[in-house]
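tool=predict chain=A
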Amino acid sequence: MTRGRETPGSPALMLLRDELLGFASSRVMLVLWAVLPALTILGYFVLPESLAGATGRGPLSATAFMALIMSSVAGTVAALLVGVDIVSERNRNVYDLLLIRPLRREHILWAKFGAVTISVSVACIVSLSVGLALDALLGAPVAGAIGDALRALASMVGVIALSAAVGVFFGMVTRSILVAVILILYIGQNLAFVPMLPGLLGILPDRFWLTMSITAALVGVIMWLAGVLFRRSEP
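tool=predict ok
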């Protein structure tokens, strides 16, 4: 989704700006930013009793419901969005033109990673904000919900970043969109649980920031591997 407009600044920042504009204006992001919150609000009012029975702790707040829905789709959307985009652009030899600019190959991948992570994270912020506003209108306690919303948002950003990195990696592994989608859905999405495994297995203490640190380390390793593949894929 790279655009060709030239703006002052470093080539890497220009590329990130172009990617942000491209992803932000895509139909998928428009659905995430507008349609999904609307459908989630509708679902919240249609299924309150079912939600209460499913949690066993009373009805979910609108904010918690928004966080639940977004956490289930945001990572998958981020991975598919960037993975399919990379495969498509590689097949159209778009990067042959981009590499004329004075920038490293890794900058292209990091620009796509950053653009998708930011775009999908903004969609999560919009949804959680709508949930908080709805709770306030319904008279639900919002003070405690804000802290929970911030924690949920941080967790979602971690999942989004890890999923986006996985999408970048599998986008470099194959030139088939179908294969990339299959790899992302059946292998990549399971990696989102890896940062939580040390706490769940009792190997390390189950701490929020420890999980986030493991997530950041995995993102760095996966993006580094994707960069290595990119450097070796074409002259």
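The radius of gyration is 19 Å. The chain is about 75% helix and 0% strand.
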